[in-house]
Design a protein that fits this description.
The protein is of the alpha+beta class and 134 residues long. It is built from 4 helices and 6 strands. A hairpin with a 2-residue loop joins strand 1 and strand 2. The termini are far apart.
Protein backbone atom coordinates (compact mmCIF):
# COMPACT_ATOMS: atom_id res chain seq x y z
CA UNK A 1 0.00 0.00 0.00
CA UNK A 2 1.13 3.57 -0.61
CA UNK A 3 2.59 5.48 2.27
CA UNK A 4 3.71 9.06 2.75
CA UNK A 5 5.35 9.92 6.05
CA UNK A 6 4.26 6.54 7.40
CA UNK A 7 0.58 7.06 6.58
CA UNK A 8 -1.11 4.18 4.76
CA UNK A 9 -3.70 5.84 2.54
CA UNK A 10 -5.32 2.58 1.48
CA UNK A 11 -5.94 1.79 5.15
CA UNK A 12 -7.38 5.27 5.70
CA UNK A 13 -9.70 4.99 2.69
CA UNK A 14 -11.06 1.65 3.84
CA UNK A 15 -11.34 2.88 7.42
CA UNK A 16 -13.45 5.82 6.27
CA UNK A 17 -15.66 3.55 4.16
CA UNK A 18 -15.97 1.07 7.02
CA UNK A 19 -16.90 3.87 9.45
CA UNK A 20 -19.52 5.22 7.04
CA UNK A 21 -21.10 1.87 6.34
CA UNK A 22 -20.99 0.79 9.99
CA UNK A 23 -23.46 3.59 10.67
CA UNK A 24 -25.96 1.95 8.32
CA UNK A 25 -28.14 -1.02 9.01
CA UNK A 26 -27.73 -3.93 6.61
CA UNK A 27 -31.08 -3.06 5.06
CA UNK A 28 -30.08 0.58 4.48
CA UNK A 29 -26.78 -0.54 2.98
CA UNK A 30 -28.57 -2.89 0.58
CA UNK A 31 -30.90 -0.13 -0.61
CA UNK A 32 -28.10 2.41 -1.03
CA UNK A 33 -25.97 -0.01 -3.05
CA UNK A 34 -28.97 -1.01 -5.15
CA UNK A 35 -29.79 2.65 -5.79
CA UNK A 36 -26.19 3.41 -6.77
CA UNK A 37 -26.10 0.38 -9.09
CA UNK A 38 -29.30 1.53 -10.79
CA UNK A 39 -27.90 5.05 -11.21
CA UNK A 40 -24.74 3.66 -12.84
CA UNK A 41 -26.79 1.54 -15.25
CA UNK A 42 -28.93 4.54 -16.16
CA UNK A 43 -25.94 6.84 -16.66
CA UNK A 44 -24.08 4.42 -18.92
CA UNK A 45 -27.31 3.09 -20.48
CA UNK A 46 -26.27 -0.52 -20.02
CA UNK A 47 -27.57 -3.64 -18.34
CA UNK A 48 -25.64 -5.11 -15.40
CA UNK A 49 -23.83 -7.76 -17.46
CA UNK A 50 -22.65 -5.25 -20.08
CA UNK A 51 -21.66 -2.71 -17.43
CA UNK A 52 -19.56 -5.17 -15.43
CA UNK A 53 -17.82 -6.43 -18.58
CA UNK A 54 -17.00 -2.94 -19.89
CA UNK A 55 -13.35 -1.92 -19.67
CA UNK A 56 -12.99 1.24 -17.61
CA UNK A 57 -11.22 3.08 -20.44
CA UNK A 58 -14.36 2.56 -22.54
CA UNK A 59 -16.35 4.63 -20.05
CA UNK A 60 -14.24 7.76 -20.52
CA UNK A 61 -15.10 10.21 -23.26
CA UNK A 62 -12.46 10.02 -26.03
CA UNK A 63 -11.42 13.63 -25.39
CA UNK A 64 -10.95 12.87 -21.66
CA UNK A 65 -8.66 9.82 -22.02
CA UNK A 66 -5.49 11.75 -21.20
CA UNK A 67 -7.03 13.16 -18.02
CA UNK A 68 -8.19 9.67 -17.06
CA UNK A 69 -4.70 8.22 -17.56
CA UNK A 70 -3.17 10.93 -15.33
CA UNK A 71 -5.78 10.19 -12.64
CA UNK A 72 -5.00 6.46 -12.69
CA UNK A 73 -1.24 7.05 -12.57
CA UNK A 74 -1.45 9.40 -9.57
CA UNK A 75 -3.77 7.01 -7.72
CA UNK A 76 -1.44 4.10 -8.46
CA UNK A 77 1.47 6.00 -6.90
CA UNK A 78 -0.31 7.54 -3.91
CA UNK A 79 -2.91 4.85 -3.15
CA UNK A 80 -5.88 7.08 -3.88
CA UNK A 81 -7.01 10.38 -5.33
CA UNK A 82 -10.02 12.47 -4.44
CA UNK A 83 -11.98 15.38 -5.83
CA UNK A 84 -11.41 14.40 -9.48
CA UNK A 85 -13.75 15.64 -12.21
CA UNK A 86 -13.96 14.10 -15.68
CA UNK A 87 -16.15 13.56 -18.72
CA UNK A 88 -17.66 10.16 -19.37
CA UNK A 89 -19.83 8.88 -22.20
CA UNK A 90 -22.78 6.51 -22.06
CA UNK A 91 -23.05 3.53 -24.39
CA UNK A 92 -25.16 5.68 -26.74
CA UNK A 93 -22.69 8.59 -26.71
CA UNK A 94 -24.40 10.88 -24.20
CA UNK A 95 -21.69 12.82 -22.38
CA UNK A 96 -21.74 13.70 -18.70
CA UNK A 97 -19.47 15.02 -15.99
CA UNK A 98 -18.67 12.89 -12.98
CA UNK A 99 -17.59 15.00 -10.04
CA UNK A 100 -16.23 14.54 -6.53
CA UNK A 101 -14.66 11.28 -7.66
CA UNK A 102 -12.58 9.29 -5.20
CA UNK A 103 -10.47 6.54 -6.74
CA UNK A 104 -8.37 4.09 -4.77
CA UNK A 105 -6.18 1.07 -5.34
CA UNK A 106 -7.71 -2.30 -4.50
CA UNK A 107 -5.37 -4.77 -2.80
CA UNK A 108 -5.61 -8.55 -2.77
CA UNK A 109 -5.19 -10.71 0.34
CA UNK A 110 -1.40 -10.47 -0.02
CA UNK A 111 -1.70 -6.65 0.01
CA UNK A 112 -0.68 -6.49 -3.66
CA UNK A 113 -2.47 -4.11 -6.07
CA UNK A 114 -5.07 -5.95 -8.13
CA UNK A 115 -7.09 -3.07 -9.55
CA UNK A 116 -8.70 0.25 -8.79
CA UNK A 117 -12.18 1.25 -7.65
CA UNK A 118 -13.97 4.57 -7.71
CA UNK A 119 -17.03 6.30 -6.40
CA UNK A 120 -18.52 9.70 -7.14
CA UNK A 121 -21.26 11.81 -5.64
CA UNK A 122 -22.27 14.14 -8.44
CA UNK A 123 -22.92 13.90 -12.16
CA UNK A 124 -24.36 16.23 -14.74
CA UNK A 125 -25.23 15.63 -18.37
CA UNK A 126 -23.54 17.92 -20.86
CA UNK A 127 -25.97 19.71 -23.10
CA UNK A 128 -24.90 19.26 -26.69
CA UNK A 129 -25.29 22.21 -28.98
CA UNK A 130 -24.80 22.74 -32.65
CA UNK A 131 -24.36 25.74 -34.84
CA UNK A 132 -26.70 25.78 -37.81
CA UNK A 133 -25.34 28.09 -40.48
CA UNK A 134 -27.99 27.34 -43.08
Amino acid sequence: SSQIAGICFTHIAFSVLRAFYSQLTLRELFYRLADFSNILLELWELNWQSFTQMLSRQSADPIDQESRERLLAVAKQTGYISDYRGVRASSTGKRFWIENVTLWNVLNEQQQPCGQAATFTQWQFIKEWSLDLT
